[in-house]
Amino acid sequence: MENLLIVKQLLETILSTPVIVTDDLPGSLKSFEDEHCFSKTLQPINTASYLHEFTDEMDRNTIYEIYEPLETVKIMFFLGNYLVIIGPYTETEWDTKKSERLLAVLGISMSYLTSYELYKCHYSIINFELIMRAVKTLIEAGGFCVSDYSYRKIKKTFDEDVSSAPISKEYTYEYVNRRYALENEFMHFIQTGDALKAKETLKKLTLMTQELSYTKGIMWNNIAGASCLRTIIRIAATQSALPPIIIDAITQKYAQNLYSIGNFAHKHQSSNFAYELVDELCTEIEKIQKQKYSAIVRKAISFIQLNLGHTLSVNLIAAELHITADYLAKQFKKETDTLIRNYIMMERTKKAAELLLSTRLTIQDISTYVGYVDNNYFVKVFKCHYGMTPTDYRKKYAI
Question: What's this model's pTM, rounded to 2 decimal places?
């Protein structure tokens, strides 16, 4: 069984579609209905009650490829006492005209076209050959022989009038609008650095999207959901004027932490990582927004602080910000009452002073680290700012 589960997880990743291997039919079939049934009337074949009846009648040595009218497909077969379900997936790309005709034939209102598109496009496009390879791999991993199985295709059609078929709430127009409104609210709080409100909104969004499947599983606890969350946060943080390098470092750490807990299996821990990400980014955004400067000057200051060890000049910074050097110099002096070259010197000597007290690095190493290749010049600048040499400063203040 252990080998079979490993293969199951591998196939889920490769196919990007759900793969169920279970001996708990009641629980698994109810979960299947909850996650994959667009409408019980339109898709009775995806309901737990229908699947229970179907599994009772299934031949234990037959692979069933089952099509339903809304154009998703699933594979079902038994491996001993274990039921295997691969899917749902689809074999065709979304085609608006074809889907309009399908809804018209079924007597379904065109107002559900977008809801149907959301539903169908959740599922991967997989061809028959790839699915059969996956089936073969699972059968052999379970210790069975492929040649012992036969194949049967089943196409389910509607047995009744479905013109008033109820649609699952997660695919309705109203649901999608509310979800996007919450996402926009969440992005606003990130952009303004309000960690408390951002986390409150994230909690609401998480609860709302627990039933929504992008490819498989719960939104915020799988790869697709985590990627969506990280993208939303990165966009919002970028709009706050936080430097991309800081955003990237913080969000990459979040992604690394999630992968470290094994494909996001631990929901509580992954949620904690998300809240920590929000806290850390909002702290950085708040720092920047407390500076009473324009966005241009804030970006210039951030660039300087992140590049103290490199060559810095007004021309280089202006080019990075896509503005003229004259405009940058004038705006910087106007808002900070300091020339850019003097600001760079102050930041370098301040960082050098921190290192003198917190490390045992040599004066030469510290000089190079903060961007002064000429050690003698560094000593001269430091003495001008602090009134003593770096060596005397360390002797006087180091504990």
Answer: 0.49
Is the distance from CB of 85 to CB of 32 less than 8 angstroms?
yes
Write down all domains in the chain, each with its CATH number in brackets: 2-165 (no CATH), 172-290 (no CATH), 295-397 (1.10.10.60)
pLDDT at 334: 93
pLDDT digits (tens, 9 = 90+) for 25-48: 999 999 999 888 888 877 888 899
Render 241-266 in DSSP notation, one character per residue: T--HHHHHHHHHHHHHHHHHTTTT--
Which amino acid type is present at position 395? K
Among 142-151, 237-246, 294-303, top mean pLDDT goes to 142-151
**For 134-155, how does the pLDDT look when each residue is reduced to its tens digit (9 = 90+)?**
999 999 888 899 889 999 998 8
Residue 56: CB atoms within 10 Å = 8
Q: How far apart are CA 161 and CA 127, in angstroms?
A: 31
331-364 CB burial, b ≥16 within 10 A, e <16:
bbeebbeeebeebbbebbbebbbebbeeeeeebe
The answer for residues whose C-beta is within 8 angstroms of residue 120's C-beta and 6 or more apart is 70, 71, 72, 90, 94, 99
H/E run at residue 35: helix 25-36
Q: Is 146 left (phi over 0), alpha (psi -120 to 50) or beta?
A: alpha
Name the residue among 275, 255, 259 with its Cα closest to residue 202.
275
pLDDT over 50 (residue 89): yes
**CA distance linking residue 274 with residue 205, whole number of Å:** 12
Quickly list DSSP for 137-161.
Answer: HHHHHTT--GGG-EEEEEE----S-
